[in-house]
Write a structure and sequence with these properties.
five-stranded mixed beta sheet; 5 strands
Length: 160
Amino acid sequence: MKLLVHIAVVTAAVFLCLGLPALAYLPDGDGVDAVSGASLEAPAQPSGEFVVILNREHHRALDEWEAFFTEREVGVIMEDLRCAIASGDAEGLQLAQRYQARLAENQMSLRSENGVLLVSKAERGLYDVVILSKEAADAYDYSAVYTRPDALVLTVEGGT
């Protein structure tokens, strides 16, 4: 008799310690469970034309980054980005934030810089990635950057 009581008490204790917490991880009726991560929707694609300039010397996965920035399907890219945006270029910032939301957390850092200083740095190859609206790129005259051998220049069409 003592053995049956002992087995019952141990079984109840094991259920309380292991079984009850495990029930919290079972899916409920609406398909959401406690283990699933929250999914974030990427910000809307801004309208207009944009320029993305990647420094070829800083990245080995250029094909993957090109696919990523042109909104094609791409797997996991195992490189980080330091993205510069001209201060005052709201559309460029919006597109950069859209890209940042599509990547793993902290994979792409954003910094806003004075537009004249940014073009000067880019002309000397002192950049990782620059994202600009076409208007900002024309206003700051990035034509010297486009011809650099280390620059991969992508033109991106925004939404309508």
